[in-house]
Amino acid sequence: MQDLPKNKKIILFDGICNLCNSAVQFVIKHDKKDVFRFVALQSELGIEICNFIGIDQNKIDSIILYNPGVAYYYKSSAAIEIAEELGGIYSLVSVLKIFPEKLRNFVYDYIAKNRYEWYGKKESCMIPTPELKAKFL
C-alpha cells in the first residue's frame, strides 16, 4: 500500500454521492487542525485500504474513518469520531454514543440506503480544486 501521510486520519467516502461530497466539504471547512485526508471509496487507494483493513467494498455504503496503524471506524461511529475531532460545538455529537451502536447504525443505514434518491449522485468522483488537492490522496 502506498505510504499514507503520518499523523493524519483518512476519511474514505462515496465519491459519487452528493451527500457524501457535501459532508467532505463541511469537514474540510471545519478541519482547523488539518487532521484529515480524503480518499474516494471507488479509487484504487480506497479499494486498497478497504482490502487492507478487511472491509468488503461490495457491502460498504458507509463513510470510513481510518487512523493508520491504530483503528478504523465506519457508519455512525465514524461520523461521531470525525465530529469529535473537529472539536468545538461539533464535539457535542458525541452525546449520540449513549445510544447503542446498533440503533445508531439503523438510522445511518436508512439514510445511506436513500442518499442517492434524496440527494442525487454525480456521474464520476469529484475532482478537487488545486487549493484542495493536497487534502486528497
TrEMBL record:
Molecular function via GO: protein-disulfide reductase activity
InterPro entries on file: DCC1-like, DCC_oxidoreductase
Protein name listed in UniProt: Thiol-disulfide oxidoreductase DCC family protein
Organism: Flavobacterium pectinovorum
Organism lineage: Bacteria, Pseudomonadati, Bacteroidota, Flavobacteriia, Flavobacteriales
